[in-house]
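request received
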Amino acid sequence: MTTTPTPTPAPASAPAAPLLTVRNLVKEFPIRSSGLFRKQVGVVQAVSGISFDIAPGETLGLVGESGCGKSTTSRAVLHLQPATSGTVVFDGVDLTTVGKNDLRRLRRDMQLVFQDPFASLDPRITVNEIIAEPLRIHGLYGEKDAGRDKVKELMATVGLKPEHGNRYPHEFSGGQRQRIGIARALALRPKLLVLDEPVSALDVSIQAGVINLLEELQDELGLAYLFVAHDLSVVRHIADRVAVMYLGKIVELGPRDQLFDHPQHPYTQALISAIPIPDPRRERTRQRILLQGDVPSPANPPSGCRFRTRCPKFQTLTSEQQHKCINEEPLLVGRGPGGMATSDDAVHKAACHYAESVQLL
Amino acid sequence: MNPEHSDNAGATAYPPAPGFGGGPPPETVLSVKDLTVTFPSDDGPVQAVRGVSYDLHAGEVLGIVGESGSGKSVSSMAVMGLLPKTARTAGSVRFRDRELLGLTEKEMTGIRGRQIAMIFQDPMTSLNPVYKIGWQLAEAVLAHHDVTKAVARKRALELLEIVGIPSPDKRIDQYPHEFSGGMRQRVVIAIAMANDPDVIIADEPTTALDVTVQAQVLEALRAAQQETGAAMVLITHDLGVVAGQADRVLVMYAGKPVEIGPIDGIYYHPRMPYTVGLLGSLPRLDQRSQEKLTPIPGTPPSVVNLPPGCPFAPRCPLRTDICLQSEPALLPALGADHEAACHHSDQLTGEGAMDIFSTDPNAAPGERPDAEPGLPPTGPGTGPGIEPGSPAAGPSTEPGTAPGSPSAGPGTEPGADPQNGAAQ
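response:
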């Protein structure tokens, strides 16, 4: 039996400078009228002021349901869709103010792996060319032989046969294509890899291989991952810390085991209780917290706590307590007994006035 | 669990699944025997379903699991008679005492919706966007019952109530686009139960939905099943969903059932290496384990021109010569009601995926991570087996290659052919 060495979790007080620091990130999209001039009639806040850090070599899992803003966050972090406000500091440089040329240089150190291994690879060029492309763009391909060797080495790193480099993407299965996407992302030896649902398009037996590969690469290359996913089981397996998003905000952030074993925010609790576990006996006796209704529109979010319209906890509160949920936005801070806000720089934070840790698993 | 939390309105604990161990054998409502479905293609016939047999008992939930392309959806479409005309279907599908294969379209229409109802994955394509929800529900009622429109509408309201649509009297006059994905799927469930069917076939009913919505829809599905007393076939790739819903499970691989049995038997005592591998490759929400997952090497075979032998053999760590020569039949493996299609299912007693599959991406599939002396790599009477770790141990299985799979492209080396591996 092989056991992987645990990737060093980020120290609580993070004495080492974080690789990525995101502060009060906001991303708005305009709502336009359907008329000729497509006049702007409103704005959707897809991401409404979120903050987090990623330490070198650490994996931060970003989870949430569709429309919660997790993919928008990943694109804003890479400055592919510039943030509306807030700061994204990568390796000591603020991406929101940096010039075009500097940004290009910084992009070497931060790469993206997409969800769909079929749409993210150019079907008309060979795998060798796909992987060589970032090297060429950044002028690192070198002499013909040197470049080819680099590509071969990358293919071997992700578990592909280098002699298959002359094939086209359609000749590979989904799992192999995802490996090609990873090899391309690794070509420039980045420090941060943003993985946007990297395994959700794959069958489970294939998915496990790609997850193992990502873990091995992290150990070997000391990569930091921002792992965006909706599958909490995968995140529990791979992440060091987890951030849970709801309607554009982080509602809970904490070390993986603390967050899964003692979730504090009612949304996290509902999410964890809703994930089916492949264990019939446990599944039959488990408690489900069923949420009522649907996610409200981000164009018109509820006042105060955004989760209150669906919150099971909210129903149990007295009207005086509910008043606080309706009028006062809960901050993402450490929470003591009774949901009292404690320290601002706690390891495990929850954005709920009445946060209470619960054991569900 | 916090006591204050446990009695809140939104919390529901699932009752234990009904057991089928004791008592008289339940009535069989749907009986599928040797069902095969073949599609013509440029590369030769595609054998999407290669002999599926199962009995569905009244009131039970049968989960059909498998990966993409395993034939789980096609076999159910064949039961409903919904395959395109080019498909060639053979075998037998009996609903109670009536043979369904070979019925005319008109005869089939009388059965669909009335006796057997279906719920599809994508609720947007099963609902008609230009008609109001109430009209579509009433249509389903009117199709099989000679009642007035007012009665049908009243029934439609009841149905929306059962599946948990809030303020149904307002919602009934809305169009599908005014509903969210989870709500739409609940409307589809309501339509499926409109005529009190005996069988409901649900094909990936929650796959397109978020987890919290999935939980709501599964609850609605459960309510629909309890209300109608229907037996249900639940097709899904999610082993977690099946664990919570099904009484029995059928595991499909390459168009054939490879294991069928009671839910607990399949999950706790799997007797087919594919099932073991599938369960082992799942990351678990409820485990702190830092151990590696155990992927199944290779990829599923293409069902065009399948080589002889067990279709799982190229990926199987227990493979021996016999596996490459003859395809194992589905035989009782753990009691009469738990059947597995594996020549070596007797070796799989209490072993987890970690014991038989290697987590090392560079290991050959024939290589067992810990060859226990008590467990010879070859089954009894199977001739000289492939030595674990020997060069002849079959396809080279860096994850980059797909042994024996045409999807690996035209350049698959001869060494990656399981038959060549055996011939050496």
